[in-house]
Design brief:
single chain, elongated, 24% helix, TIM Barrel, five-stranded antiparallel sheet, alpha/beta, alpha-L-fucosidase activity, eight-stranded parallel β-barrel, Glyco_hydro_b, 476 residues
Length: 476
Protein backbone atom coordinates (compact mmCIF):
# COMPACT_ATOMS: atom_id res chain seq x y z
CA UNK A 1 0.00 0.00 0.00
CA UNK A 2 2.74 2.46 -0.97
CA UNK A 3 1.63 3.86 -4.31
CA UNK A 4 -1.24 5.97 -3.01
CA UNK A 5 -1.19 8.97 -0.68
CA UNK A 6 -2.39 7.09 2.39
CA UNK A 7 -0.29 9.35 4.61
CA UNK A 8 -2.65 12.21 3.84
CA UNK A 9 -5.57 10.20 5.23
CA UNK A 10 -4.15 9.14 8.57
CA UNK A 11 -6.73 9.89 11.22
CA UNK A 12 -6.71 9.70 14.99
CA UNK A 13 -9.83 8.56 16.77
CA UNK A 14 -12.03 11.61 17.42
CA UNK A 15 -12.63 12.63 21.01
CA UNK A 16 -16.32 11.67 20.88
CA UNK A 17 -15.36 8.11 19.89
CA UNK A 18 -12.75 7.80 22.64
CA UNK A 19 -15.27 9.17 25.15
CA UNK A 20 -18.20 6.99 24.00
CA UNK A 21 -16.71 3.61 25.03
CA UNK A 22 -19.85 1.60 24.27
CA UNK A 23 -21.76 1.03 21.03
CA UNK A 24 -24.41 -1.31 19.63
CA UNK A 25 -25.01 -2.78 16.20
CA UNK A 26 -27.67 -5.06 14.83
CA UNK A 27 -27.36 -7.99 12.44
CA UNK A 28 -30.68 -7.97 10.61
CA UNK A 29 -31.40 -9.27 7.12
CA UNK A 30 -33.12 -12.05 5.17
CA UNK A 31 -30.99 -14.56 7.12
CA UNK A 32 -33.13 -13.59 10.14
CA UNK A 33 -36.09 -15.44 8.54
CA UNK A 34 -34.77 -19.03 8.78
CA UNK A 35 -32.97 -18.03 12.00
CA UNK A 36 -31.00 -21.26 11.73
CA UNK A 37 -27.66 -21.44 13.55
CA UNK A 38 -26.18 -18.10 12.41
CA UNK A 39 -26.06 -15.27 9.89
CA UNK A 40 -23.86 -17.36 7.55
CA UNK A 41 -26.97 -19.31 6.62
CA UNK A 42 -27.06 -17.45 3.29
CA UNK A 43 -23.69 -19.00 2.41
CA UNK A 44 -23.90 -22.37 4.12
CA UNK A 45 -27.35 -23.27 2.79
CA UNK A 46 -25.63 -23.70 -0.58
CA UNK A 47 -22.95 -26.08 0.73
CA UNK A 48 -24.36 -29.57 0.12
CA UNK A 49 -24.45 -31.84 3.15
CA UNK A 50 -23.92 -29.18 5.82
CA UNK A 51 -26.37 -28.83 8.70
CA UNK A 52 -27.82 -25.61 7.33
CA UNK A 53 -28.16 -27.08 3.84
CA UNK A 54 -29.94 -30.16 5.15
CA UNK A 55 -32.21 -28.00 7.29
CA UNK A 56 -32.97 -25.77 4.32
CA UNK A 57 -33.90 -28.57 1.95
CA UNK A 58 -36.04 -30.29 4.60
CA UNK A 59 -37.83 -27.06 5.55
CA UNK A 60 -38.06 -25.06 2.32
CA UNK A 61 -37.23 -27.40 -0.54
CA UNK A 62 -34.35 -27.85 -2.96
CA UNK A 63 -31.91 -25.05 -3.81
CA UNK A 64 -33.17 -24.74 -7.37
CA UNK A 65 -36.77 -23.99 -6.39
CA UNK A 66 -36.21 -22.11 -3.13
CA UNK A 67 -33.07 -20.01 -2.90
CA UNK A 68 -31.96 -17.22 -0.60
CA UNK A 69 -33.84 -14.61 -2.66
CA UNK A 70 -37.08 -16.34 -1.68
CA UNK A 71 -36.59 -15.22 1.91
CA UNK A 72 -36.86 -11.54 0.87
CA UNK A 73 -40.67 -11.29 1.00
CA UNK A 74 -40.69 -13.20 4.30
CA UNK A 75 -38.57 -10.50 5.98
CA UNK A 76 -41.48 -8.14 6.46
CA UNK A 77 -40.15 -6.08 9.36
CA UNK A 78 -43.73 -5.41 10.44
CA UNK A 79 -42.67 -4.59 14.02
CA UNK A 80 -39.60 -2.53 13.11
CA UNK A 81 -39.56 0.91 14.69
CA UNK A 82 -36.40 2.99 14.40
CA UNK A 83 -37.72 5.13 17.23
CA UNK A 84 -38.00 2.09 19.51
CA UNK A 85 -34.53 0.94 18.45
CA UNK A 86 -33.16 4.38 19.31
CA UNK A 87 -34.84 4.28 22.70
CA UNK A 88 -33.33 0.85 23.38
CA UNK A 89 -29.87 2.14 22.45
CA UNK A 90 -30.33 5.09 24.80
CA UNK A 91 -31.55 2.87 27.64
CA UNK A 92 -28.57 0.51 27.13
CA UNK A 93 -26.13 3.36 27.67
CA UNK A 94 -24.54 2.94 24.22
CA UNK A 95 -23.30 6.17 22.63
CA UNK A 96 -23.07 5.00 18.99
CA UNK A 97 -25.07 2.45 17.04
CA UNK A 98 -26.35 1.29 13.68
CA UNK A 99 -27.85 -1.62 11.76
CA UNK A 100 -25.61 -3.83 9.64
CA UNK A 101 -25.71 -1.74 6.48
CA UNK A 102 -24.95 -4.62 4.15
CA UNK A 103 -23.94 -8.09 5.19
CA UNK A 104 -22.27 -10.57 2.83
CA UNK A 105 -25.56 -11.38 1.11
CA UNK A 106 -25.92 -8.44 -1.33
CA UNK A 107 -29.01 -7.16 0.51
CA UNK A 108 -28.57 -3.42 1.10
CA UNK A 109 -30.45 -2.08 4.10
CA UNK A 110 -30.84 1.41 2.64
CA UNK A 111 -32.54 3.15 -0.26
CA UNK A 112 -29.87 2.26 -2.81
CA UNK A 113 -29.71 3.30 -6.44
CA UNK A 114 -26.47 1.34 -6.84
CA UNK A 115 -27.99 -1.98 -5.76
CA UNK A 116 -31.63 -2.77 -6.64
CA UNK A 117 -31.59 -5.59 -4.06
CA UNK A 118 -32.34 -3.43 -1.04
CA UNK A 119 -34.75 -3.04 1.85
CA UNK A 120 -36.87 -0.48 -0.01
CA UNK A 121 -37.48 -2.65 -3.06
CA UNK A 122 -37.75 -5.92 -1.12
CA UNK A 123 -38.50 -7.22 2.36
CA UNK A 124 -39.76 -4.49 4.69
CA UNK A 125 -39.91 -1.90 1.86
CA UNK A 126 -38.33 0.68 4.15
CA UNK A 127 -35.05 2.58 4.34
CA UNK A 128 -33.72 0.92 7.49
CA UNK A 129 -30.41 2.81 7.61
CA UNK A 130 -32.08 6.14 6.88
CA UNK A 131 -34.77 5.72 9.53
CA UNK A 132 -32.21 4.63 12.12
CA UNK A 133 -29.89 7.54 11.30
CA UNK A 134 -32.72 10.02 11.87
CA UNK A 135 -34.00 8.54 15.12
CA UNK A 136 -30.60 7.71 16.59
CA UNK A 137 -29.33 11.23 16.05
CA UNK A 138 -32.51 12.62 17.58
CA UNK A 139 -31.43 10.79 20.75
CA UNK A 140 -27.87 12.13 20.53
CA UNK A 141 -26.50 8.78 19.38
CA UNK A 142 -23.68 8.73 16.82
CA UNK A 143 -24.45 6.70 13.69
CA UNK A 144 -22.46 3.62 12.66
CA UNK A 145 -22.60 1.97 9.22
CA UNK A 146 -21.13 -1.53 9.02
CA UNK A 147 -20.00 -3.09 5.74
CA UNK A 148 -19.37 -6.79 5.17
CA UNK A 149 -19.99 -6.93 1.42
CA UNK A 150 -16.42 -7.76 0.34
CA UNK A 151 -17.46 -11.27 1.41
CA UNK A 152 -20.01 -11.30 -1.44
CA UNK A 153 -17.17 -12.32 -3.77
CA UNK A 154 -17.86 -16.06 -4.00
CA UNK A 155 -20.29 -16.04 -1.06
CA UNK A 156 -23.17 -17.77 -2.85
CA UNK A 157 -21.19 -20.19 -4.99
CA UNK A 158 -22.70 -23.63 -4.44
CA UNK A 159 -21.54 -27.22 -4.55
CA UNK A 160 -25.03 -27.96 -5.96
CA UNK A 161 -24.88 -27.33 -9.71
CA UNK A 162 -28.67 -26.99 -9.85
CA UNK A 163 -28.83 -24.23 -7.23
CA UNK A 164 -30.65 -21.04 -8.19
CA UNK A 165 -27.44 -19.02 -7.84
CA UNK A 166 -26.39 -20.37 -11.26
CA UNK A 167 -29.56 -19.31 -13.07
CA UNK A 168 -28.51 -16.31 -15.22
CA UNK A 169 -31.60 -14.26 -14.37
CA UNK A 170 -30.65 -14.42 -10.69
CA UNK A 171 -27.27 -12.74 -11.14
CA UNK A 172 -28.62 -9.47 -9.71
CA UNK A 173 -29.35 -11.28 -6.44
CA UNK A 174 -26.19 -13.34 -6.09
CA UNK A 175 -23.58 -11.85 -8.37
CA UNK A 176 -21.98 -13.58 -11.37
CA UNK A 177 -21.14 -17.28 -11.34
CA UNK A 178 -17.57 -17.78 -10.14
CA UNK A 179 -15.27 -20.69 -9.36
CA UNK A 180 -16.29 -22.34 -6.12
CA UNK A 181 -12.89 -21.59 -4.60
CA UNK A 182 -13.70 -17.85 -4.50
CA UNK A 183 -15.72 -18.44 -1.33
CA UNK A 184 -12.48 -19.02 0.60
CA UNK A 185 -11.00 -16.27 2.81
CA UNK A 186 -8.03 -15.87 0.48
CA UNK A 187 -9.18 -16.97 -2.97
CA UNK A 188 -6.90 -17.57 -5.95
CA UNK A 189 -9.10 -15.30 -8.03
CA UNK A 190 -9.49 -11.85 -6.51
CA UNK A 191 -12.45 -9.57 -7.30
CA UNK A 192 -12.52 -8.00 -10.76
CA UNK A 193 -12.78 -4.28 -11.40
CA UNK A 194 -16.56 -4.35 -11.78
CA UNK A 195 -17.00 -5.95 -8.34
CA UNK A 196 -14.54 -3.54 -6.70
CA UNK A 197 -16.21 -0.54 -8.31
CA UNK A 198 -19.64 -1.58 -7.05
CA UNK A 199 -18.18 -2.30 -3.60
CA UNK A 200 -16.92 1.29 -3.41
CA UNK A 201 -20.04 2.86 -4.93
CA UNK A 202 -22.26 1.29 -2.28
CA UNK A 203 -20.16 2.77 0.52
CA UNK A 204 -19.93 6.19 -1.09
CA UNK A 205 -23.71 6.18 -1.56
CA UNK A 206 -24.19 5.57 2.17
CA UNK A 207 -21.70 8.34 2.94
CA UNK A 208 -23.63 10.72 0.68
CA UNK A 209 -27.06 9.87 2.04
CA UNK A 210 -26.38 9.44 5.77
CA UNK A 211 -22.88 10.80 6.63
CA UNK A 212 -22.21 8.04 9.19
CA UNK A 213 -19.95 8.90 12.11
CA UNK A 214 -18.30 5.46 11.94
CA UNK A 215 -17.53 3.33 8.89
CA UNK A 216 -17.02 -0.21 10.18
CA UNK A 217 -15.41 -2.73 7.86
CA UNK A 218 -15.58 -6.43 8.52
CA UNK A 219 -12.60 -8.64 7.69
CA UNK A 220 -11.51 -9.63 4.17
CA UNK A 221 -11.61 -6.07 2.81
CA UNK A 222 -8.02 -6.63 1.71
CA UNK A 223 -9.23 -8.58 -1.35
CA UNK A 224 -10.65 -5.33 -2.78
CA UNK A 225 -8.21 -3.58 -5.10
CA UNK A 226 -6.22 -1.01 -3.12
CA UNK A 227 -7.29 1.84 -5.38
CA UNK A 228 -10.93 1.33 -4.39
CA UNK A 229 -10.16 1.05 -0.69
CA UNK A 230 -8.21 4.29 -0.99
CA UNK A 231 -11.07 5.88 -2.94
CA UNK A 232 -13.51 5.12 -0.13
CA UNK A 233 -11.21 6.42 2.63
CA UNK A 234 -10.36 9.55 0.66
CA UNK A 235 -14.01 10.19 -0.11
CA UNK A 236 -14.99 9.84 3.54
CA UNK A 237 -12.14 11.80 5.10
CA UNK A 238 -11.26 14.10 2.22
CA UNK A 239 -13.86 14.84 -0.43
CA UNK A 240 -16.85 14.67 1.92
CA UNK A 241 -14.86 15.64 5.03
CA UNK A 242 -17.23 13.89 7.41
CA UNK A 243 -16.83 15.89 10.60
CA UNK A 244 -15.20 13.75 13.28
CA UNK A 245 -15.82 10.57 11.28
CA UNK A 246 -13.69 7.48 11.80
CA UNK A 247 -13.03 4.20 9.98
CA UNK A 248 -12.67 0.95 11.90
CA UNK A 249 -11.06 -2.04 10.21
CA UNK A 250 -9.66 -5.52 10.90
CA UNK A 251 -6.42 -7.38 10.28
CA UNK A 252 -4.27 -5.43 7.77
CA UNK A 253 -7.14 -4.46 5.47
CA UNK A 254 -6.22 -0.75 5.66
CA UNK A 255 -2.86 0.84 6.48
CA UNK A 256 -2.03 1.33 10.12
CA UNK A 257 -3.16 4.76 11.24
CA UNK A 258 -6.01 5.12 8.77
CA UNK A 259 -8.53 4.64 11.57
CA UNK A 260 -9.25 2.51 14.63
CA UNK A 261 -8.19 -1.12 14.70
CA UNK A 262 -11.04 -3.51 15.49
CA UNK A 263 -10.30 -6.82 17.21
CA UNK A 264 -13.29 -9.09 16.71
CA UNK A 265 -14.21 -10.70 20.03
CA UNK A 266 -10.86 -9.36 21.18
CA UNK A 267 -9.31 -8.55 24.52
CA UNK A 268 -5.87 -7.67 25.85
CA UNK A 269 -3.89 -8.60 28.91
CA UNK A 270 -2.31 -5.10 29.09
CA UNK A 271 -3.48 -1.56 28.28
CA UNK A 272 -2.63 -0.23 24.81
CA UNK A 273 -1.23 3.18 23.95
CA UNK A 274 -3.69 3.49 21.05
CA UNK A 275 -7.50 3.48 20.99
CA UNK A 276 -9.02 0.24 19.73
CA UNK A 277 -12.37 -1.48 19.48
CA UNK A 278 -13.65 -4.96 20.21
CA UNK A 279 -16.83 -6.01 18.46
CA UNK A 280 -18.61 -8.84 20.22
CA UNK A 281 -22.11 -10.20 20.59
CA UNK A 282 -24.71 -10.29 23.30
CA UNK A 283 -25.75 -13.68 21.93
CA UNK A 284 -24.45 -16.67 23.85
CA UNK A 285 -25.09 -18.90 20.84
CA UNK A 286 -22.40 -18.89 18.14
CA UNK A 287 -24.35 -16.39 16.08
CA UNK A 288 -24.63 -12.67 15.39
CA UNK A 289 -28.27 -12.85 14.28
CA UNK A 290 -31.53 -14.07 15.76
CA UNK A 291 -31.80 -17.85 15.91
CA UNK A 292 -34.64 -20.19 16.79
CA UNK A 293 -33.56 -20.78 20.39
CA UNK A 294 -31.59 -17.67 21.35
CA UNK A 295 -29.42 -17.50 24.43
CA UNK A 296 -27.84 -14.36 25.83
CA UNK A 297 -24.92 -13.49 28.03
CA UNK A 298 -25.73 -11.96 31.40
CA UNK A 299 -25.55 -8.22 31.98
CA UNK A 300 -22.83 -8.88 34.55
CA UNK A 301 -20.69 -10.63 31.97
CA UNK A 302 -21.04 -7.71 29.53
CA UNK A 303 -20.41 -5.12 32.25
CA UNK A 304 -17.22 -6.93 33.30
CA UNK A 305 -16.12 -7.14 29.68
CA UNK A 306 -16.81 -3.42 29.17
CA UNK A 307 -14.83 -2.47 32.29
CA UNK A 308 -11.90 -4.61 31.19
CA UNK A 309 -11.87 -3.21 27.64
CA UNK A 310 -12.21 0.43 28.74
CA UNK A 311 -9.40 0.07 31.30
CA UNK A 312 -7.14 -0.96 28.40
CA UNK A 313 -8.02 1.99 26.13
CA UNK A 314 -10.70 0.24 24.10
CA UNK A 315 -14.35 0.52 23.11
CA UNK A 316 -16.90 -2.30 23.12
CA UNK A 317 -19.22 -2.55 20.11
CA UNK A 318 -21.90 -5.06 21.10
CA UNK A 319 -24.20 -6.85 18.66
CA UNK A 320 -27.76 -7.99 19.18
CA UNK A 321 -29.88 -9.46 16.39
CA UNK A 322 -33.64 -8.79 16.05
CA UNK A 323 -36.32 -11.13 14.78
CA UNK A 324 -37.26 -10.99 11.09
CA UNK A 325 -40.16 -8.73 12.10
CA UNK A 326 -37.73 -6.14 13.50
CA UNK A 327 -38.44 -6.69 17.19
CA UNK A 328 -36.03 -7.88 19.88
CA UNK A 329 -36.26 -10.85 22.22
CA UNK A 330 -37.52 -9.79 25.68
CA UNK A 331 -34.42 -11.28 27.33
CA UNK A 332 -32.13 -9.19 25.13
CA UNK A 333 -34.10 -6.05 25.97
CA UNK A 334 -33.95 -6.83 29.68
CA UNK A 335 -30.19 -7.40 29.64
CA UNK A 336 -29.47 -4.25 27.64
CA UNK A 337 -31.55 -2.22 30.08
CA UNK A 338 -29.64 -3.74 33.01
CA UNK A 339 -26.37 -2.66 31.40
CA UNK A 340 -27.82 0.82 30.94
CA UNK A 341 -28.95 0.99 34.57
CA UNK A 342 -25.44 0.12 35.72
CA UNK A 343 -23.98 2.77 33.42
CA UNK A 344 -26.49 5.39 34.55
CA UNK A 345 -25.08 5.00 38.05
CA UNK A 346 -21.43 4.24 37.33
CA UNK A 347 -20.89 5.77 33.90
CA UNK A 348 -18.44 8.39 35.16
CA UNK A 349 -15.92 5.55 35.56
CA UNK A 350 -16.46 4.54 31.90
CA UNK A 351 -17.43 7.48 29.68
CA UNK A 352 -14.76 10.09 28.89
CA UNK A 353 -12.14 8.17 30.87
CA UNK A 354 -8.56 7.32 29.98
CA UNK A 355 -6.31 4.47 31.15
CA UNK A 356 -4.39 4.53 34.41
CA UNK A 357 -0.75 3.47 34.53
CA UNK A 358 -2.02 -0.07 35.10
CA UNK A 359 -5.31 -1.53 33.91
CA UNK A 360 -5.96 -4.40 36.25
CA UNK A 361 -5.24 -6.22 39.45
CA UNK A 362 -6.37 -9.63 40.56
CA UNK A 363 -6.04 -13.37 40.23
CA UNK A 364 -8.22 -13.88 37.13
CA UNK A 365 -5.98 -14.13 34.09
CA UNK A 366 -6.80 -12.31 30.84
CA UNK A 367 -5.04 -13.42 27.67
CA UNK A 368 -4.67 -11.61 24.35
CA UNK A 369 -7.46 -12.78 22.05
CA UNK A 370 -8.60 -11.92 18.52
CA UNK A 371 -10.83 -13.65 15.98
CA UNK A 372 -7.87 -13.92 13.64
CA UNK A 373 -7.43 -15.37 10.15
CA UNK A 374 -7.02 -18.94 11.43
CA UNK A 375 -10.36 -18.71 13.21
CA UNK A 376 -12.04 -17.13 10.19
CA UNK A 377 -10.80 -19.98 8.01
CA UNK A 378 -12.07 -22.43 10.63
CA UNK A 379 -15.51 -20.82 10.38
CA UNK A 380 -15.37 -21.15 6.59
CA UNK A 381 -14.80 -24.86 7.15
CA UNK A 382 -17.82 -25.04 9.48
CA UNK A 383 -15.74 -25.14 12.66
CA UNK A 384 -17.23 -22.39 14.82
CA UNK A 385 -15.13 -21.16 17.71
CA UNK A 386 -16.87 -20.75 21.08
CA UNK A 387 -16.19 -17.70 23.21
CA UNK A 388 -12.78 -17.84 24.78
CA UNK A 389 -13.34 -15.12 27.35
CA UNK A 390 -15.89 -16.18 29.91
CA UNK A 391 -13.85 -15.37 32.97
CA UNK A 392 -15.37 -15.60 36.43
CA UNK A 393 -14.15 -12.53 38.29
CA UNK A 394 -13.79 -12.16 42.04
CA UNK A 395 -13.76 -9.41 44.64
CA UNK A 396 -9.97 -9.42 44.28
CA UNK A 397 -10.22 -8.40 40.61
CA UNK A 398 -10.10 -4.66 39.90
CA UNK A 399 -10.02 -2.41 36.84
CA UNK A 400 -8.69 1.14 36.82
CA UNK A 401 -9.68 4.22 34.80
CA UNK A 402 -9.05 7.94 35.19
CA UNK A 403 -10.80 11.20 34.45
CA UNK A 404 -8.69 14.26 35.13
CA UNK A 405 -7.35 13.98 38.68
CA UNK A 406 -9.83 11.31 39.67
CA UNK A 407 -8.88 7.64 39.81
CA UNK A 408 -11.66 5.08 39.49
CA UNK A 409 -11.15 1.58 40.82
CA UNK A 410 -13.81 -0.89 39.71
CA UNK A 411 -14.25 -4.00 41.84
CA UNK A 412 -15.60 -6.94 39.83
CA UNK A 413 -16.99 -8.71 42.89
CA UNK A 414 -18.21 -8.09 46.46
CA UNK A 415 -15.99 -9.37 49.28
CA UNK A 416 -17.32 -11.97 51.69
CA UNK A 417 -14.81 -10.69 54.25
CA UNK A 418 -16.43 -7.26 54.29
CA UNK A 419 -13.29 -5.48 53.11
CA UNK A 420 -11.80 -4.57 49.74
CA UNK A 421 -8.00 -4.87 49.45
CA UNK A 422 -6.47 -3.01 46.50
CA UNK A 423 -2.80 -4.01 46.56
CA UNK A 424 -1.76 -1.76 43.67
CA UNK A 425 -2.65 1.37 45.68
CA UNK A 426 -0.21 0.72 48.50
CA UNK A 427 1.88 3.54 49.93
CA UNK A 428 5.01 4.31 47.89
CA UNK A 429 3.47 2.43 44.97
CA UNK A 430 2.25 3.55 41.54
CA UNK A 431 -0.27 6.03 42.98
CA UNK A 432 1.94 8.73 44.52
CA UNK A 433 -0.74 11.04 45.89
CA UNK A 434 -2.02 10.99 49.43
CA UNK A 435 -5.52 9.54 49.32
CA UNK A 436 -7.86 12.04 50.92
CA UNK A 437 -11.23 10.64 49.99
CA UNK A 438 -12.69 7.33 48.86
CA UNK A 439 -16.31 7.22 47.69
CA UNK A 440 -18.33 4.19 46.60
CA UNK A 441 -20.57 5.49 43.83
CA UNK A 442 -24.23 5.00 44.67
CA UNK A 443 -23.64 4.45 48.36
CA UNK A 444 -24.53 7.15 50.84
CA UNK A 445 -22.52 5.51 53.59
CA UNK A 446 -19.30 7.00 54.90
CA UNK A 447 -16.44 4.65 54.01
CA UNK A 448 -13.70 3.72 56.42
CA UNK A 449 -10.33 3.08 54.76
CA UNK A 450 -6.65 2.96 55.51
CA UNK A 451 -3.53 2.64 53.40
CA UNK A 452 -0.28 0.90 54.18
CA UNK A 453 2.62 -0.87 52.50
CA UNK A 454 0.31 -3.75 51.51
CA UNK A 455 -2.41 -1.74 49.82
CA UNK A 456 -5.54 0.36 50.17
CA UNK A 457 -8.06 -1.30 52.47
CA UNK A 458 -11.71 -0.23 52.30
CA UNK A 459 -14.42 -1.48 54.64
CA UNK A 460 -17.45 -2.46 52.58
CA UNK A 461 -20.72 -0.74 53.48
CA UNK A 462 -23.66 -2.74 54.76
CA UNK A 463 -25.47 -2.80 51.41
CA UNK A 464 -24.44 -2.93 47.77
CA UNK A 465 -25.25 0.17 45.69
CA UNK A 466 -25.82 -1.97 42.58
CA UNK A 467 -24.99 -5.35 41.12
CA UNK A 468 -22.15 -6.73 38.92
CA UNK A 469 -19.34 -4.21 39.61
CA UNK A 470 -18.64 -1.54 42.20
CA UNK A 471 -16.89 1.74 41.54
CA UNK A 472 -14.63 3.51 44.01
CA UNK A 473 -13.93 7.15 43.26
CA UNK A 474 -10.53 8.05 44.66
CA UNK A 475 -9.21 11.59 45.01
CA UNK A 476 -5.70 12.43 46.11
Amino acid sequence: MNNLAWDNLYREAPKWFRDAKFGLFFHWGPYSVPACQNEWYSRNMYAKGTEQNLYHEKTYGNLHDFGYKDFYPMMKGERFSAKEWAELVRLSGARYAGPVTEHSDNFSMWNSKVNPVNSVNYGPHRDIVGECAKEFRAEGIHMLASFHHQWLWGWFMSSDNEADVYIPDNEKFYGPALPLETNRYDPYRYPDQAFCKTWAKKICEVIDQYAPDVLYFDSRAYIIDEAYRYQVAEYYYGSRNIHDGIITYKQEDFPKGIGVYDFERGQFSKPKDFPWQSDDRLEDNITWCMVQEPKYKSSERIIHQLCDIVSKNGNLLLNVGPYADGSFHPDAIKILKEIGEWLSLNGEAIYETRPFSIAEEGPTAIIDTDFDVDKIEGQLNFCNTPDEHNEIFTAQDFRFTTHGDTLYTIALGWPKTGEFHINSLKTNGIYKKTIQCVELIGSGEHLKFHRDARGLHIKAPESKPCESAYVFKING
